[in-house]
Amino acid sequence: MLLGVAALYSALLLGLRLGAQDSHAVDVLYLLILLLCAAVAWQAFARARGAARRVLGWGVLSLSALAAGEAAWVLLFDLPGREAPDLSVADAGYLLYYVGLLGLLLLGPGRGRNPAALLDSLTVGLVMAQVSWVLAVVPLLQDPGSTVVFRALNLGYVGLDIVMLVLVLFTLRQPLSFTRWPLLLGLLAYVVADLLYFNLGRLYQPRGPIDLLWAWGAAGQALGIVWLASPGALSAGVDRAGPRRASARLDTVLRALPYAAVLTSCALLVLYGPQNTLTGRGVVLLTAAVFGVVTLRQALSHAESLRLNRQLRAQAEELRLSQAQMEHRAFHDGLTGLLNRAGFYRALRAALPGGAAVLLLDLDGFKPVNDAHGHAAGDEVLRVVAQRLAACGAPHFQAARLGGDEFALLGPASQSPQAAQALAERVVAAVAEPVTLSGGAQVQVTGSVGLARMDGTGASEDSLVRQADAAMYRAKRAGGGRSAALVRVPGEAAC
């Protein structure tokens, strides 16, 4: 509903030629937007839990105060057509709005220690103060018709907006989750609208683009509070690749702002600096030129640095992925995805000091499947057997294909002989289940299983595998489709 009312408000401002009555209707519609923003924020606050309530309470306070201040102005002065005093009850709500924002930004998400970002944000804030001094503050102070209260109040608004601008820009420069953007971008839009309003003075056109920034800025703040009220949003880290790329683009824009601010300061120096003599004018112009060239040089260096950093990060990520893929291929079987012989022995060497159990499986009757149905069908049978073996061994045993139709399971020696024997019987039963090929035909193979176990005392991987291999051939000689285990030998334990 909030977005719908904001869209209607935008359509009225952009598409209609407003008369006096329309003017009041639009003001009431803007008030409705602020009231909806406060209501949405209150609902989100009610759902929040724990530390989120303390932080978001400041956001609720700010939007509620803003809506109250606007309601007072519309109902007491705008609709009745009365002239507002220099300090009214509406100003109380507007000022309390800034108090809530200060609490939200100082206590909320995105705080960090980044001196460079803080200095950049202060640079922009100082230049905005310089612009405001020239365009708004000096004319206000020189206006003979303004009272002390009126001057103090408007100076306070300008100062608070500049403080908000610095805090928002600084927060946006921190690593942020995507869920925090609506709040911060909404605050930025609202503060920029305020500063434009004060600096334009008599050039401000009511119910124009600045009013759109106010409306959508407030809506963004409300939606941001809703997002931050969701579980884990306040502690969320930087998002996945897509939001990270968008955040990098925003960061590039924010990093460019100080350079634009310095150029703006140079322009003000040229336009409003001391120009009483030819010497003075030359000094001013040359100083501005030097600042301009240095700023452009720094901007070019910064852009090149950003490009090189992005390129290095991309290359490092490609290298990491390539190394991970190469390692995976080196230790995994390409057909079944199980560990290959090298991967199996690597895992066995790592497990052996604490004791290990090995189960070897050799398929019986696999060659006739290849002969009758072709090698593609044989590969399909091997993949099915691999899946069944991995399922039987999970979660304590790792499955491997050692080559051809020979497989293995590797697990801890802590398994009791009875549990290991039960595992072997499950493997035999699983392998013996018929396999339906992709062409519809059914085939069946069986498996001979050998078991061996070592407790780590004087053990080697070769001796353990030899034990399991000998037990497996005992099972084959007994007719296949069964399991067998070796008896205990010195320094070794057999299942």
TrEMBL record:
Transmembrane segments: 29-48, 55-76, 88-107, 119-142, 148-170, 182-200, 212-235, 256-274, 280-300
Any Pfam family matching the protein: GGDEF
GGDEF domain ranges (all copies): 354-488
Keywords assigned: Membrane, Transmembrane, Transmembrane helix
Protein origin, superkingdom: Bacteria
NCBIfam families referenced in this protein's UniProt entry, alphabetically: GGDEF
Protein name: GGDEF domain-containing protein
Organism: Deinococcus arcticus
